[in-house]
Design a protein that fits this description.
Dna Topoisomerase Vi A Subunit, Chain: A, domain 2; three-stranded antiparallel β-sheet; alpha/beta; globular; Arc Repressor Mutant, subunit A; single chain; six-stranded mixed β-sheet; 14 helices; about 40% helix; 17 strands
Length: about 350
């Protein structure tokens, strides 16, 4: 894989050199990352980029700086691969930030300039930034009866105490040595993960427990996909009963607009929603623990009604419309209203036994 990444970067450089040799305006072709070029592939069940592209030219006042920045990031990535090291996207920003000779112009003024260039490079050569050895802060935790090899070290996810394994962005480099589980349970909230981990839910139900800490990172989404794809483990998603919890599920399942170019590599179309639902608020007598939905929650819910994967499912339409009609929502911690172990000993086992999932 490393050789392939290096070759893609070299091809990008060679193409620019060929333009120069032909005395043509050097250019880089980049797929357009905009809503107008994002489509939902119904067969794959994923968001993906369309075929619209734009060219970034060197001899164009509007393009010149970004053209330079793109090549700088590509060159930096090749150096990382050659040296067999990794760098954070923050490290890259500072490493490349400088003032151009005989000018007051900086290569990058803020990291908000360099981050989108990384994504441009991703879509231009069709790779993940992690494969370019560019990393981000760790986010997400996991526990389960699994052994992995990570940069030469064998790590046992079942023997990491109360903390669990902190999920890196470079999950593609992890080698699974042993996976003993029947399913993967993805929990939106760290508090939910902590409750289930302390109650040894993953041991009692032979599953892999993943906490996303809110919107899942790319590394976490890739880990979920790998466990589903390579080890054929069903994936169940457990989120708050609100517009944002539903959206987090949709991101895990079908991808997001901003990352449509890598949906096929980090989304899990077969993932199923386990809870919490608006119906559960009434089914499990959680009304006193429910929260009044804000106007922004209702607005977001109405937007979700038009998402392709929610639109086609009558049960999802029912749940989202219930949120709008009743004007209430609930966090997964609301289950503690029925007792601190109600989530791990009654709610989740009952849901899983009944196969009470939403697709």
């Amino acid at each position: 894989m490393t050789k392939e990444m290096k070759k893609e970067l070299e091809n990008l450089g060679q193409k620019v050199l060929q333009d120069i040799e032909k005395k043509e305006n050097p250019s880089i072709e980049i797929p357009i990352r905009a809503l107008s070029n994002v489509i939902f592939d119904k067969k794959a069940g994923q968001l993906t980029l369309g075929d619209k592209t734009a060219k970034r030219y060197y001899f164009n006042v509007a393009h010149a700086k970004k053209f330079m920045q793109t090549l700088m990031v590509a060159s930096f990535s090749k150096q990382l691969i050659d040296q067999k090291i990794h760098a954070s996207i923050r490290d890259m920003y500072y490493n490349l930030k400088r003032t151009l000779p005989n000018s007051d112009e900086n290569t990058f003024d803020e990291q908000s300039e360099s981050d989108p260039i990384i994504v441009d490079l991703e879509v231009a050569i069709d790779v993940l930034r992690e494969q370019l050895h560019l990393t981000t802060d760790r986010k997400g935790i996991v526990a389960g009866n699994v052994k992995i090899q990570d940069r030469g070290d064998i790590i046992d996810w079942s023997k990491l105490g109360s903390g669990g394994w902190s999920i890196p962005s470079t999950v593609d480099e992890v080698d699974f040595k042993k996976v003993d589980a029947e399913f993967v349970l993805v929990v939106e909230k760290n508090a939910g993960f902590e409750r289930l981990h302390e109650d040894k839910f993953w041991q009692k139900h032979n599953c892999i427990l993943i906490g996303t800490g809110g919107q899942p990172s790319r590394g976490t989404r890739l880990l979920i996909q790998r466990l589903n794809d390579e080890h054929k483990l069903p994936v169940y998603v457990f989120c708050d009963s609100d517009s944002y919890g539903f959206y987090i599920y949709s991101v895990i399942k079908s991808g997001s607009i901003s990352l449509a170019h890598v949906s096929d590599r980090i989304s899990t179309p077969s993932a199923r929603y386990l809870g919490l639902t608006v119906s559960d608020i009434y089914e499990y007598d959680l009304k006193k623990a429910a929260i009044k939905a804000k106007d922004v929650d209702i607005k977001r819910a109405k937007e979700l009604l038009n998402y392709e994967w929610f639109k086609k499912n009558p049960r999802w339409q029912k749940e989202i419309n219930l949120l709008i009609e009743k004007g209430i929502k609930a966090e997964i911690e609301a289950l503690s209203h029925r007792g601190l172990k109600f989530m791990s000993e009654e709610y989740l086992p009952e849901k899983i036994k009944k196969k009470d999932f939403l697709d």
